[in-house]
Amino acid sequence: MKLQKVCAVSLAGLMLLALTGCGGGDKKAAAPKDGGKKLVMYWGALDDWMAKDIAEFQKDTGIKVEAVRMSSGETIGRIKAEKANPKASIWFGGPADGQIQAKADGLLEKYVSPNAAKIPDKFKDKDGYWTGVYVGYLGFASNSKLLKEKGVEAPKSWQDLLKPEFKGQIISANPGSSGTAYTMLATIIQLKGEKDGLAYMKELNKQMKNYQKSGTAPARLAGQGECMVGISFLHDAIKYREEGMKDLVLTAPSEGTGYEIGAVSIIKGGPDQEAAKKFIDWCLTKKAQEIGQTTGSYQFLTNPEATPPKQAAELNGTKLINYDFPWAGAHRSELVEKWDKAIKS
Predict the structure, then answer these.
(1) Angle, helix 332-344 to helix 96-104, in steps of 10 degrees
(2) Which among 40, 153, 216, 279 is placed 20 to 30 Å from 268, CA to CA?
């Protein structure tokens, strides 16, 4: 297809909570209290949001939840490995590219929540296999103290990252494990075309200090002074800055940048599918979507009735590309393999 231009498993966290309470939400999102039900999910957003979401869902429904925090690449690998005997029923968070790939691989179950009617079409799968919960913009998190010491300005374009002064001073995640980093790879290919995009990624590789497993790590490491620039979703950088990393400065590439739709889906054949449906109903409500910002997750929200975090306002006006999610999801494995060969050649 013609690309559009501008316009494995390591468990990072395991949590088992068992609470009960009373319900609320849109269109009876809450289930009858039933402590006998249990829901296992793989979680791609931050741990503190995971803890709060689980606690609130259990309080509202009485359904017990066990959750494992993993990056997108790990989650895909885990679900594939468990295909014959799935252990989890929900995949929450991380860029929808991964869930698009999982849909193509026959790993997801179709479910159209009644609450999905409120979610704009551009934030959900047309066939009902995944629904977007939040939106995050890709960009650069730079350490202002290190920049000042070297007399360097924060990068304002993808091309700026190739400047000699940034050699060995950039950290990104690995596209093979991280949905964040894959969003970057797919963005560059959509901007430049495959040949020039891979050539750019090969040059960028020469600038890298290292690659991380998780997409949140580069912004955190930049805030800690481990590098000048971390390539990350900008809402993660805002979180770290608010937590005390005051040297972080945020910029977005002038050529345009990609973005994620953080999605939720049901894993095909997973245990207790009814509890999984109740979770999706719940997490699409105004109440549930506003929970993330109480724990430092400052993404834009997909439910128009939900109040977005005020911290996200500084990202308004960011120039976005017309990011092609179906294409990015369909070519994920292929592009990661080509990227790996390009940087090693």
Answers:
(1) 110
(2) 216
Domain chopping of the chain, boundaries: 13-135+261-307, 136-258+319-344
**For the segment 275-307, what is each residue's pLDDT rounded down to a tens digit?**
999 999 999 999 999 999 999 999 999 999 999
Domain 136-258+319-344 fold is D-Maltodextrin-Binding Protein; domain 2 (3.40.190)
- 13-135+261-307 and 136-258+319-344 in the same fold: yes
Helix (H), strand (E) at residue 98: helix 96-104
- pLDDT of the residue at 11: 32
Cα separation, 30 vs 23, in Å, equals 5
Helix (H, G, I), strand (E, B) or coil at 123: helix
Q: Which of 136, 332, 336 is nearest to 234 (CA)?
A: 136
CATH number of 13-135+261-307: 3.40.190.10
Question: Considering the chain, what is the average pLDDT of its residues?
Answer: 91
Q: What is the DSSP pairing of strand 38-43 with strand 90-95?
A: parallel
pLDDT digits (tens, 9 = 90+) for 107-127: 999 999 999 999 999 999 999
Q: Residue for token digits 């959509």?
A: 190
- 159: which residues sit within 8 A by CB, 6+ positions away? 255
User: Could you tell me where the beta strands, DSSP code E, fall in 21-179?
Assistant: 38-43, 64-69, 90-95, 108-109, 131-143, 170-173
User: Three-state SS for 12?
Assistant: coil
